[in-house]
Design brief:
The protein is of the alpha+beta class. It has a single domain (3-154), classed as Sandwich (Jelly Rolls), CATH 2.60.120. It is 39% helix and 27% strand. The protein has five helices and eight strands, in the order ααββββββαββαα. The protein has helices at 3-6, 19-27, 84-87, 109-118, 120-154, and strands at 30-34, 39-41, 49-55, 58-64, 67-74, 80-81, 95-98, 102-108. β4 and β5 form a beta hairpin.
């Protein structure tokens, strides 16, 4: 495996894949580059691709009432987004914007489906990693809801 993709072994999405599985998966990837400020995916867009960050950083933004709220910033090699497109058939839930020049590995659904058909163990590993990640995000969101509720209650706001 080339040093250029060696960091992917520590990606939370790919933990547990063998070197051969990882190499085979990366060979199916489309390499994409985005300029700073460029929208990579748009809220409401059809979900059709999973992305792994190889360089740069992205912001996950949710629109509402004429303004965007930054939900997360991803800037570590191996960070990933678009995984919900593998779980449900709903449109994109947020915008993803490049914060700086950013390089991604893109895995369209059809490419992943073919890889998974030939590598069921890899599919199970990736699906479990996605589930763990979504669970972690849900726990973090629950904590944030509690914090916001406590701030509102401390300020004497309506219940």
């Amino acid at each position: 495996m080339s040093a250029a993709i060696g960091f992917l072994q520590t990606s939370p999405l790919l933990l547990g894949l063998s070197a051969d599985e990882l190499r085979e998966l990366v060979e199916t990837a489309e390499r994409r580059t985005h300029r700073a400020g460029e929208i990579i995916v748009s809220e409401g867009q059809t979900s059709d691709c999973l992305f792994i960050l190889t360089r740069g950083a992205v912001q996950i933004e949710k629109g509402g009432a004429g303004a965007s709220v930054v939900l997360a910033t991803l800037g570590q090699e191996g960070d990933f987004f678009g995984e919900m497109s593998l779980i449900d058939i709903m449109p994109r839930s947020a915008d993803v914007r490049a914060c700086e020049e950013t390089e991604l590995l893109a895995f369209p659904k059809r490419t992943l489906a073919s890889f998974f058909a030939s590598s069921p163990r890899a599919q199970m590993t990736i699906v479990l990693n996605i589930a763990r990640n979504l669970s972690l995000r849900l726990r973090e969101a629950d904590l944030r809801i509690v914090e916001l509720s406590q701030q509102r209650d401390a300020g004497g706001g309506p219940r």
